[in-house]
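Long-time lurker. I teach an intro course on protein structure, and each term I like to show students one example going from raw sequence to a predicted 3D structure in token notation. This year I'd like something fresh instead of my usual example. Would anyone be willing to generate the tokens for the chain below so I can use it in lecture? Attribution to the forum is fine with me.
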Amino acid sequence: MRCLSRRAIWSATWFFLSLTLLAMTACAGETPVQITPTPELEVVVFATEAPTPKSMATQAAPAAPTPTAGFGASTAVPQETSGGQTASINRPPDINPLTGLKVADPAILKRRPIMVRVGNDPGVQQVALEKADIIYEEIVEWWVTRFTAIYLSQDPEMIAPIRSARLINLQLGPQYQGALANSGGSDQIRWELSQSDLVNLDEFFSPQPYFYRENEGWQTRLAFDAAVARDYMKSEGLESDVKLRGFVFSPKIEVSDLPKEAVGDAKEVIIPYPQQTSEAKWQYDSASGNYLRFITGEPIEDFDGNQLTATNVIIYFAEHQETDIVEDSNGATSIRININGLGTAWLLRDGKILKGNWETNGRETPNFIFNDSRPMPLKPGHTWVEVVPPDYQIEIDGVSHARLSDATGKANSSNDEAEDEPTDEPAATTTLTPTPIGARPAATPTATQTN
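-- Reply from a regular --
Happy to contribute to a lecture. Here you go:
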């Protein structure tokens, strides 16, 4: 049997197709042609495998002098295990690992911390910051700061104003195994968050805990109910039995027991965030044993009119990198801040400054340690962490202090002090090239909306 040629097949096909079209045209006045709609495209979400963090055990460990007497058994530095995690600090089950304070119900300490993005635009008053266990402050878009308030022991029914996420939350969230409450973000930020394993309570996808406040503008109207969020997380299977490493605490410090070169007085400290919008000052109040918070010279008050305070203030030096991620209609770009690894940390407590380092593998809360590997003990209470670029000079009691940051250990300051002055830097760390922040033109805040 001969096979039909390709031309013959197409001719026959065209003939029958023409007859069909003629028949349909002839019947058009009697029976309408039924059109089958194209099925809607199915959206398929592909899960990506989270990158495996490199264990700190694989990195070069700082060469440290032989440790001297510590602060007792309760303040022993956690030791890293074979799996890259560190053993929990020994503490009673009813002691909050983030504050060192006792709680009535130990069960609340096994929940995920809720990490809430709170705005700090000029003239904005925050609600419920005083109820956070820890607050992180960082620069956004180079001209203003923003907060990540961490709630574990309390669930305020109104936290405000809620603002959008930034790149720092990609690293901060896993350190606390927290759930992030935020009002969205730029496309690139949202994409990176979606590719992480962070529990993301984005307002646009998890609207249940959010509500609008009356008589408020766009910057301040969105609020968050942490109690509703707890119920929502349970119903969605997002809650978890979290075991936080937390921090080392000591009610008092004996200065004579601490490294001599790492201790000084600190009654008033100025953090040189952008001066027009966010310059922060902490003033020690000996009556309460806390630091009082000021911004651009004015006291910051809570919703009840009380000045905000912190028991501990930690200055957390971290590399800041420019990005091309546009965050607003003015073209302002986001900052990638590296808060994982090893770096310099200064602790303010009891009118003193303790100079040392921070260290974290990215999956646990940071260790704060002296150069000899002993812990820098926080005072039981609430802590405020000021994340700053490496080249920031911090004014302490009227004197400008700079981080001793270059590889040779020489002071990175304008004065000509002795070269063999002790350094507060880790003995061995990757050399980072700090972004030349001083070279940037000063940004002027505008009324243009940002996330």
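Some talking points for your students: The domain at 90-436 is CATH 3.50.90.10 (YerB-like fold). The chain is about 10% helix and 25% strand.
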